[in-house]
Amino acid sequence: MENSKQIILNKKYWKGWSLNWNVLSILAIVVALVENLLVTSSETVDNGTYQLFLLVFIGYLFCVYLVGYFLSPRVKIYSGHFAQLNFSLGILLCVQDLLTEKLGILTLPYFVSFAQILEQMRYDAILLFESTISSLILWIISFVIGTLIGVVLGILLGRYRQFNYWSFPYLKVIGIIPAAAWMPLTMVIFPNSFLAEIFLIVLSVWFPVAFMTIGGVQNISPTYFEAAYTLGFNEHKIIQKIVIPGALPNIFIGIFTSLGLSFTMLVISEMIGAKVGLGWYINWAKSTGNYSQLYAAIVIMALLFSIIFALINKIQEKALRWRRVAS
């Protein structure tokens, strides 16, 4: 069991551990910090938050490398795989700081340094936190509803030919229409913007999930159903024990396909009708011409959506762990 876990880990984090790259990655962040401290700024910027971020990042990398080298082989594999990326990040931060804040080659208002973005995030921390929570709640509600509708419809359409015959042509027409096209209508039909936003995000989610679920159900070998009938399974048990597990890989493909669409629709819907949320915050920043606010919201979105993607990927790995054992 331990060997199989180690093999999976080595496949995922395939770059070997290197002392040189680990040291260089720390040095790259140190160089970015020294550059920010010593090079004179062409703009008035409070670099305290950025410098604290770099110090924390240096400390984090140092701790991870020490733990990996002396205590944990798993952490060592992890740190070795990402060392080159951390090095490139340090170089990128240094170059970006020079081009914007220090030398002024890329000038305000459209180009801002990462230090300005972090300072804006600190200044607007409460508003950004409230907007992030609002967007997250809206997304979770909408995505769960859209996924459930997609899975249920996909199972019904894939399992029952009569239901597929009468329903799929109509559902297909509705599903391929971009969710954004319904926006003007939803603002009139629904009593408030929150319900309209939920409806739009659900529209962007359900069809990819349903479409992939149909394929997953229809690709299940008929021999499984024959064996189930022989064992006396009723329809409910067939759905539970054969259809859902058999279609699960396709269901997750549909979920991952709909993730990007749901994120896009979340931002668009909040830009149009919301009074809070990251999409609203971006729209507000655009109207005031404060591009550091805009970039701050984009950074938070990148972090939030990456965390969501990673969590769903973990759920997929857990739900489909039998595939790793089989391989």
Automatic annotation (TrEMBL):
<keyword id="KW-0812">Transmembrane</keyword>
<feature type="transmembrane region" description="Helical">
    <location>
        <begin position="136"/>
        <end position="158"/>
    </location>
</feature>
<dbReference type="GO" id="GO:0055085">
    <property type="term" value="P:transmembrane transport"/>
</dbReference>
<feature type="transmembrane region" description="Helical">
    <location>
        <begin position="170"/>
        <end position="190"/>
    </location>
</feature>
<keyword id="KW-0813">Transport</keyword>
<feature type="domain" description="ABC transmembrane type-1">
    <location>
        <begin position="132"/>
        <end position="313"/>
    </location>
</feature>
<protein>
    <submittedName>
        <fullName>ABC transporter permease</fullName>
    </submittedName>
</protein>
<keyword id="KW-1003">Cell membrane</keyword>
<dbReference type="GO" id="GO:0005886">
    <property type="term" value="C:plasma membrane"/>
</dbReference>
<keyword id="KW-1133">Transmembrane helix</keyword>
<feature type="transmembrane region" description="Helical">
    <location>
        <begin position="21"/>
        <end position="38"/>
    </location>
</feature>
<comment type="similarity">
    <text>Belongs to the binding-protein-dependent transport system permease family.</text>
</comment>
<feature type="transmembrane region" description="Helical">
    <location>
        <begin position="82"/>
        <end position="99"/>
    </location>
</feature>
<feature type="transmembrane region" description="Helical">
    <location>
        <begin position="294"/>
        <end position="313"/>
    </location>
</feature>
<dbReference type="InterPro" id="IPR000515">
    <property type="entry name" value="MetI-like"/>
</dbReference>
<feature type="transmembrane region" description="Helical">
    <location>
        <begin position="196"/>
        <end position="217"/>
    </location>
</feature>
<feature type="transmembrane region" description="Helical">
    <location>
        <begin position="50"/>
        <end position="70"/>
    </location>
</feature>
<keyword id="KW-0472">Membrane</keyword>
<feature type="transmembrane region" description="Helical">
    <location>
        <begin position="251"/>
        <end position="274"/>
    </location>
</feature>
<dbReference type="InterPro" id="IPR035906">
    <property type="entry name" value="MetI-like_sf"/>
</dbReference>
<dbReference type="Pfam" id="PF00528">
    <property type="entry name" value="BPD_transp_1"/>
</dbReference>
